[in-house]
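[Automated response] Your request has been received and processed.

Submitted sequence:
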Amino acid sequence: MDESNSSGRGGRGAATDCSPVQPGKTALLRGRNVERALGFERIHFKFEGGNPTGSQKDRAAFELARRAAHEGYEVITLATCGNFGVAAAYAAQHSSLRTLIFFPERYHTRRLAEMTRLGAEVIRVDGDYEAAVAQSREAAERNGLFDANPGGKNGDASLEAYGEIAREIVEVLGDAPHSVAVPVSNGTTLAGIFDGFCRLYESGKTSRMPRMITASSYRKNPIIKSFREGHAFCMDLHPSEIHETTVNEPLINWHSFDGELALRALRASGGYAEHASDQDMLQHARLLLQREGLSVLPASTSALIALAKVRLNGGLPEDDHVVVLTGRRQ
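Generated structure:
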């Protein structure tokens, strides 16, 4: 697909709907060995590695592809640092759509080859993730493509998709847990899960709202910094503050596209936000593999690190606590 000549829209409903290979309904696992190791009363892992491409991004990708197909688009476009690109390419392939992905040149993901194997056209961007999003949005506007980027006009589809995680947790536990810990980058997953719990509570399906807990790479995320420093709005970092590593890449950005929504979720739930170092994330990934047999993306353990910090500070009652984890794919 030549981006400069791409026309992304056909007749309404021209593309087929998503295949039966759907994301969601992932396992909620009791972490008894981690309970003993870290001193939790009851901890559960919402293991999103059970999704088709191994992460919760599949949920958003399939919903976005469904919407694009329904509205008659032929091409979806997005920027990615890894997981979302693979998820979008997979969902698009199963919806008879094409995918145009903008990828920051200096990032290191091993999943780039998966995107091309799934039929995506990948354009390397000489810049950071935020620059890749800008170029993707420009391509969508210029060529009539479906914009699947977070924080854009179709962002509500991603929020609704992530809200299903809340429903699945309640289906297993019977009520909302005391707290839900979610790693954060753009804030979309955190905000979507919180919105899902809001809908359940407002409809009388839960007796309470959970406390939202989150974490990201040490001093490299606007949501964490803005919350901890008490800013009224999600304040951008300076791009020079961002330094990518193979561990922290899924978490870092100088602008969080759904940062305001994530901050609202943290504040409305009496939440907590914490930093996590690469060393701590790698250590906790090893812990989960050794104690629970879970192969997880190290960056996703930032949420477990934050929850453990709350426990050490005496802020966790003897109750149910959930950590959302992403699977690790080579």
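Summary generated for your ticket: The first helix runs from residue 32 to 38. The chain has eleven helices and ten strands.
If you did not submit this request, please reply to this message.
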